[in-house]
């Protein structure tokens, strides 16, 4: 199967909803319907800065990638940050996740980015196998401070 990688559009809502639900289930996370709607609207709003790609096979969405650009004090141009990547489990292992990541390279290049970067859970072995094949593991450790 060959996927078409393209920008998400308003007609993709039903397919995106199914993928988004699968992504949240994978991370054992629940978000409100309001947050899901807000995320969807942000993806469609060119002025917001949250962007989405989808992988489509025979009219069916099988994967998604959400990304934005981050400013840096070390570079003139912004870097591309991949926030969410998900491929339907029924079609995993067929290269759709890799195709989505590699599509980000071209977008980053057009923006003059130095890099595409992302994070994942250290125990996400399946995703890390893919990530290890297309990128270098960073030496940095991430800290998070919750604001209550």
Task: Give your account of this protein's structure.
It is a single chain. This protein is α+β, with helices and mostly antiparallel strands and 148 residues long. It has a single domain (4-134), classed as Aminopeptidase, CATH 3.40.630. It has 4 helices and 5 strands; from the N terminus they run βααβββαβα. The protein has helices at 13-26, 33-44, 96-111, 125-134, and strands at 4-7, 51-57, 60-70, 79-87, 116-118. The chain has a 5-stranded mixed beta sheet with strand order 1-2-3-4-5, with helices on both faces. The longest helix is centred in the last third of the chain and has 16 residues, at 96-111.
In CATH terms, what is the fold-level topology? Aminopeptidase
Helicity, in percent? 25-40%
Estimated radius of gyration: 15 Å
> Taking all residues together, what is the mean pLDDT?
97
Class derived from helix and strand content: alpha+beta
Strand content range:
15-25%
What order do the SSEs take from the amino end to the carboxyl end, as H and E?
Answer: EHHEEEHEH
Which second-level CATH architecture applies? 3-Layer(aba) Sandwich
**CATH class term:** Alpha Beta
Principal-axis shape equals: globular
The domain count comes to 1
**CATH-assigned homologous superfamily:** Gcn5-related N-acetyltransferase (GNAT)
Oligomeric state: single chain
- Arrangement of strands in the largest sheet: 1-2-3-4-5
Number of E-state strands: 5
**Total helix count?**
4
Note the gap between the termini: 46 Å
Specify the biggest β-sheet. 5 strands, mixed
Low-confidence stretches: none
